[in-house]
Each structure stands twice: as structure tokens, then as C-alpha cells.
Amino acid sequence: MTTTTRGFATIQQRDLVNQIADMLTEALLKGDFAPGVHLAEAQLARDFGVSRAPVREAARLLESRGMLVSQPRRGFFVRTFNADELDDVYDLRLCLERHAIRLLAGKLTAGMEAALSDQLETMRRVARNGTAVQQIEEDVAFHRMLCEFSGNHRLVRVFDELCHEMRFCILLIGQLYDDALRVADTHEPILEALRTRSPEAGEAALDYHIGVAQQRVVEMFRERAKG
Amino acid sequence: MTTTTRGFATIQQRDLVNQIADMLTEALLKGDFAPGVHLAEAQLARDFGVSRAPVREAARLLESRGMLVSQPRRGFFVRTFNADELDDVYDLRLCLERHAIRLLAGKLTAGMEAALSDQLETMRRVARNGTAVQQIEEDVAFHRMLCEFSGNHRLVRVFDELCHEMRFCILLIGQLYDDALRVADTHEPILEALRTRSPEAGEAALDYHIGVAQQRVVEMFRERAKG
DNA sequence: CGACTGTCGAGTGTCGACAGTTTGGAGATT
DNA sequence: AATCTCCAAACTGTCGACACTCGACAGTCG
């Protein structure tokens, strides 16, 4: 959080574009728009009570995040995913996190370890009494920490992009965690491997953890496409 | 090239936004704008002879590609790179290509091998009589093929983004290849390793090849920042 | 009956304009 | 001389409007 010299939080210059982008994102994740449907600028502008200009820019933003696609002279459409694309996303995500773990294993500090441990505790807490969305967010936050602690900021940016897409697909499926507490526990081996400072052990733990999730999510997604 | 049933090339619907984005990209890569300088929409609009709307959208596009950054109420600025950021880009690029090689080693077809071999030949040709820009493009094309043949389309997209940034930095440095022919030759071991279908050998060849480039480019970039 | 053509509504691409903000400098003050 | 204040110019964010394009539907001709 950026702060002024007096310690006040700076007033967020949340212009219309970002507000609209956030609202659209939320609507997309809530499933208000079916994949593939056309988003008319003028209609959205009326809905939000603004002109088309900021709507266009917000849509472009979401396009760059892979949530919308545009066709010349036809406008914006909600991004459609197929199971293969989702599989690619998970594959790439694993690639990134493996790399992050490899980097991280060589320079894990006590502070990082504590932060990861805390995050795991948070996951367990929301697993007991939290919404599905919260559970997903805290899960993502753990993995994001791994990326952050790797020290490669560019990697984090790509990870964030992939997360947007995974979230999109997961919430499209409906529900993911039948036993959130058990899912939270499966992160323990990753942290355990990191404590041994062994890149190989870390990669192995990740391979298993993400591999299971990938298989499960992609499978559910493939089923949903059929039914 | 898409064609109609009679063989006509489809008319490119190149709207202003894409044209402007391309021209801006070219100008940035040519070094017409120093890193960090402010790009005024109205001025660009006058230069291009259009209104501000398409200029804004083009700028947003370049922002999403990481070539510009924007600040609320202040507008767009040419992205500045420091050596550490460039190092991150190369680090991530190696991560991606290692993954691509790993995937590719298991399913290399004769067609893929021939394509890579051809591309290597093209590199040698432009190394003898081609511009520095051509040499870089053909070099990138070889590595892009590796990503494409991996079968993970999402990976290719990220690779393309990283390439934009690397190109930006490399052309900022001025020149890269003192001996382009030798550089082209250093790709041979990668192809050779792939022929043995060994993921480990492929990764090792890549590690060396990209490691050398990374060290060299980042070093040159760091020097330039000082002088 | 089928294929082509003209028309119409919806929607995007682009433009010029206005309001509020930021910036840089002239002038005043210490 | 250095710093502060205030103002004007420049710039961004947003808006409403217009022209052109696309897709659909009805009508026409073979």
C-alpha cells in the first residue's frame, strides 16, 4: 500500500476504466455472461451509466488478460475455454512453480518459511469456515508466495495471468473442493520439502500436488463440456 | 495467408489502432523515444493525423505488451528496463524453453526436425548477408519453433511477450552479434540433443546456449546503464 | 424452388469537444 | 539566491455524435 508522508493511504485514483474492469471481471467470474456471448459496448455503457470510451478501454484490458476476445468490427466476446487450453494453463503453471521452487530452495529465509507456514494456517482456517471463493483465493495466495519468494518478478506477473484464467475455469465448473481441509493439507509436503532446501524434493512435491489438481480440474471441465 | 476460394488474399482489416500500434512499436524499437519519456496522446494524434481515441487504444495495447507504462492522469511513458528486470526475463525464458524442450523431446517428428534444421540454415544465411534485425528475428524464430512444437499454445504466447521485451532491450543496446555465424552455430547442439530424444541433453544444451546469451546481454545492458 | 440483391437495424471505429488535473514557469517573498 | 505561490498552458479522462460496416431478412429474378 502506498502512503503519503503522513501515513494516510493515498486516495486510490480509481478511474472509471478500472472500476468497470473490476465489475466486469466480477460478473464474468460470477458467471453472469456465458462463454462466447457478445458484449455490446453501448449496452454495457448504459448499464454502468457511462459513455462507451471507458467501457472500450476496460474491455481491452480484459482482453489482454485473456478473459475476453475481440474481433474487428464485431466487438468483444466472452472468452471460451476448452479442456485442452485449460490443460495448457496448468502445464505452464507447473513449469513456473517448479522454477520458482528451484530458485527458492537455495535462498529460503526464516521469514519466508514463516510466511508460508502462516498462509497454510490461513488456508486451514478458511477450509473450516469460509466460502469456496475464499478457499480458492487463499490457495492461490500460497502458490503466489512461492513465485514471489523466487525473486523473479516477471514470473509472478505471468503466474497472475494464469491464475486469472484458472479462476475463470474453476468457477465455471461450479465447485472444486469437496474436502477443503484435505486439499489444504496437501500443501504441507511442499513446505516440508522446502525446509530441507532440496530443489528436487520441492519439485517432486509440486509435481504431485499440481498434477493431482490438474487432472481433477481438467477432467471436471471436460465432463462439463459434454453434459 | 488466408485466401478465398478464388485465391484472392483476404483484405486485411487493419484498423487504425493496429496500424498505430505497429508504427509506435517500430519507433520504439528504432529508439526514437528514450526510455522513460512521456508520450502525449494529443501530440501522437497530430503526428499520425488521427484523433486521440485510436492512439489511446494503441498505447493501451503496447502497455499490455510491457513496452509502455501508464500512470493515472499522467499518461503513457516509455518502459524503462534495468538489468535486473532483463535478467528476470531471460531467466523466465530459459524456464519456458527448458519445458518446451522436455515436452518436445518425447514427440519430435521428422517434419519438426526438418523445420528446425531449415530454420538453422536460414539463420546461417542471414548471418552471412543480413541485417542485425534480421539475424535477431531468425534467431527468435528458431526458439519460437521449439515452443510451438512443444504443443502448449499458452507457453508460446508468454514466450512471444518475453521476446517483445528482449528485442526492446537488445536493440536498445545497439548491436549484439559480433559474429552472427558463430552464434547461429551454437544452436546446433540443441538440435543435436533433440535428435537423441533426450530431454536431459536438450535441457543441458539450452542451459548453455541461453546462459551464455543471458550473461552477455545483461552484462552489456548493465554497462550501457552506467556509461 | 433456389440463389442473388437491396434494405434496415444494430454496433463498432473514429472524431471533436469539454471539464478537471497536472506541470512548468513567472513573479513574489524571505 | 533560494523558496514559495499562483497562474496559464498542456494534457488526460470522459462524453456525445456521426459514418461506416456487418448480419439478417425480405423481395426479386432466373
Automatic annotation (TrEMBL), chains A, B:
Per the UniProt record, the source organism is Salinicola acroporae
Cited Pfam families: FCD, GntR
- What name appears for this protein in its UniProt entry? GntR family transcriptional regulator
Keyword Transcription tagged? yes
Q: Which UniProt keywords apply?
A: DNA-binding, Transcription, Transcription regulation
Which residues belong to any copy of the HTH gntR-type domain? 14-81
